[in-house]
Write a structure and sequence with these properties.
Length: about 130
């Protein structure tokens, strides 16, 4: 079996729970077709650089799998037919990277830095009435 990484974008009007439910649903499709989900990440609601189907934002999800090509083709077929999924991308990889993906690491580093200077105390530089 080959190793794959899948990224898909779901419609913005779904709730976070519904978007995570899509990950579980498509993971089960892989398992039903003799594949295995190695790991998955929900990247959250993100702004896209251009509109897709009149949507400016989308729920991004990432799945790592170890599956035969037939299972991946079936999952992609069902994703393309699903009304809530806007885009799908699958990449075959030689090996899965350990730990969180680059997207999650970048988000964690932004969160660790804090929001310095936004909102809250402005240090006397606020508007004067």
């Amino acid at each position: 079996m080959a190793l794959y990484e899948h990224v898909f974008i779901a419609r913005q009007d779904l709730s976070n729970a519904q978007a995570e439910g899509l990950i579980e649903h498509f993971g089960q499709v892989l398992k039903d077709n003799e594949g295995d989900v190695v790991g998955f990440e929900y990247w959250g609601l993100r702004t896209m650089s251009y509109k897709i189907n009149k949507n400016r934002k989308g729920h991004y999800a990432f799945i790592r799998s170890n599956a035969p090509s037939a299972a991946v083709q079936e999952m992609e077929r069902l994703m393309r037919l699903h009304d809530d999924v806007m885009r799908v991308m699958t990449v075959k990889v030689d090996e899965h990277e350990e730990g969180p993906s680059a997207v999650v690491l970048a988000k964690q580093s932004r969160d660790d830095r804090g929001r310095g200077g936004r909102g809250g105390d402005r240090g006397g530089r606020g508007r004067r009435d």
